[in-house]
Amino acid sequence: MAIYSGPTQYSIVANIAALTPIKTALRTRMATATHCKRKNKMRIFVALIIVLHVAACGITPRQSSGDILVIGDSVLAWNRSGGQDVGRVIAAELGRDVVSRATLGARVQSGGLGALGGLRIPDQLPLGSWDWVVMNGGANDLAFTCGCARCDAEIDRLIAANNQTGAIPDLITRARLQGAQVLWAGYYEAPASRSFGACRPALVELERRIARYAAATPGVYFVDTEDVLDPAVPSLLAADRTHPSPAGSAVIGRFIAQEISARSGHSALPEG
After folding, report:
1. Could you report the per-residue pLDDT of 145-202, keeping only the tens digit for each?
2. Which helix (H) or strand (E) holds 185?
3. CA-to-CA distance for 226 and 173, rounded, in angstroms?
4. For a tag site, which of 65, 112, 153, 179 has the least CB within 10 Å?
5. Which pLDDT tens digit goes with each residue over 64-121?
6. How far apart (Å, rounded) are the C-alpha atoms in residues 269 and 4?
């Protein structure tokens, strides 16, 4: 049987060649659609972060100067929407004006969503005069860069082994140059936290350096909230076993208020 191998073969090749631009167009369209989907997903994710922040932490005020400023991450911002965050407790204990700009998900350094307003802790410190600035931070940096494992390089960027340089000393120095005394609030232990339980060793090293920096720097104080918040007491932590419950925020807020009072000559309001 003769096999026709002339025009038919060329027709097939020609047809394939004719389909090539169509295939390319389809691939381009699919790639564009995929890119748009990714962008939409990112927009939704960012919007979700903002909604969660407002729901859990309330609207962040924009006041640029005052008595006491609180900046940092969700540990300090948690329970704001119900008027029971750490900043509110400090204000009630001391009878002083307190502005809290702490924000859920905030990091000391830029990266990922850190470029968004309020999600970079240094951006929470406005130009202006404050008597005190209460700070925390670093947990989100470790969790979202090195996954709380093999974090030596990230810790060094936050504060070097010499306890003198890095993003955290830079932030504290800014506040001091604006005339504020600085109180750095260390993290409490949260062993049952699914998000940050593994961060414990890295955070211990980070805060060891911060404590040494504070001890050698006038007007800077390190206090460890672990001294007052016992994770074995269920009522002190929220349902996620990471953030403070209203009772936990009250414990932290009273502790910070006492530390500020002891160092500034302002007495806490008497009970009753």
Report:
1. 999 999 999 999 999 999 999 999 999 999 999 999 999 999 999 999 998 989 999 9
2. strand 181-186
3. 25
4. 153
5. 778 999 999 999 999 999 999 999 999 999 999 999 999 999 999 986 555 555 589 9
6. 102
| Residue (of 168, 113, 118) closest to 143 by Cα position | 113
Distance between CA 99 and CA 64 in Å, rounded? 9
Tell me the pTM.
0.76
Which has the closest alpha carbon to 58: 98, 16, 100? Answer: 100
Write the DSSP string, 75-109.
HHHTTGGGT-SHHHHHHHHHT--EEE---TT-BSS
Side-by-side strand order, sheet with 66-71: 98-100, 66-71, 130-135, 181-186, 220-224
Q: Which two tokens stand for residue 180?
A: 């504020």
> What CA–CA distance (Å, rounded) separates 234 from 225?
16
Among the listed residues 233, 224, 255, the one whose alpha carbon sits nearest the alpha carbon of residue 241: 233
Q: Which sequence spans correspond to the domains of the chain?
A: 1-57, 59-264
- What pLDDT, on a 0 to 100 scale, did the predictor assign at position 118? 58
C-alpha torsion sign, points 100, 102, 108, 111: negative
Structure confidence by residue, pLDDT tens digits, 216-226 = 999 999 999 99
Between 230 and 195, residue with greater pLDDT: 230
3-class secondary structure, 131: strand
The CATH code belonging to domain 59-264 is 3.40.50.1110
